[in-house]
Amino acid sequence: VGAVAMWVKNFGTSDLLLRLLLEDPAGGPPTNFAFSSDPIVVAAGGGWQRVRFSLDPADLTAGIGSVEGALTGATVLRLFHGSADSFPGEPLAAQLGVDDITALGVPEPSAWALMIAGFGLAGAALRRRRLPA
Questions:
Q1: Which residue of 53, 103, 111, 125 could cross-link 20, Cys pair, CB 3.0 to 4.6 Å?
Q2: What is the distance between the alpha carbons of residues 4 and 55, in angstroms, rounded to a whole number?
């Protein structure tokens, strides 16, 4: 999974600075958690908007442990409001609507290799057809 996308609507009166947190509690306190380095602004009273949280390690900040550990063992996802690079964020009374949460995939290297090989074979076949006999 390369990103998590969702539709959100801020029903409250304060702008929200949304961040996504990934946590691996594994039956106890988390040993790793990481969160979005940059918040996504969701304006108060605005309409529904699609937001995308990147899961690229370069776009995440480790809170406890490591980003890689959080990505590998995450079983909990949380949304929180925060302007600073820390969790938890500032307390804020808010109403947030969330809909259609989607995990966006990134093709595996083997899938890329197959796709490139397929394009190469298709190109070779077209070239072969065009050459005079």
A1: 53
A2: 7
Show the tokens assigned to 115. Answer: 């796709």
The enclosing H or E element of 115 equals helix 109-130
| pLDDT value at residue 93 | 87
- Whole-model pTM: value is 0.74
Whole-angstrom distance, CA of residue 45 vs CA of residue 48: 10
Name the 3-class secondary structure at 16.
strand
- Give the span between the Cα atoms of 114 and 89, in whole angstroms: 44
Question: If you ran DSSP here, which 8-state letter would residue 37 be given?
Answer: S
Please name which of 15, 19, 6, 38 lies closest in space to residue 95, comparing C-alpha atoms: 15
In this structure, the chain runs to a length of 133
